[in-house]
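Many introductory courses stop at the sequence. We go one step further.
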Amino acid sequence: MHVAPVGGTAVQDHVALAEIELCGELIIAASAARERLSLESIDEVLKVAEERDTSRG
């Protein structure tokens, strides 16, 4: 069995970590909502509109 060494040498996939964080935000928003999240609410949680605005810059 091969175990990764301890001491901060682990490789991190920043894209995967960002996706996990966004999923967590969606789970929190969904659990706090009384009804299903609308597409607009999901976009707001995921900050989709902000991404569109900054890409037009």
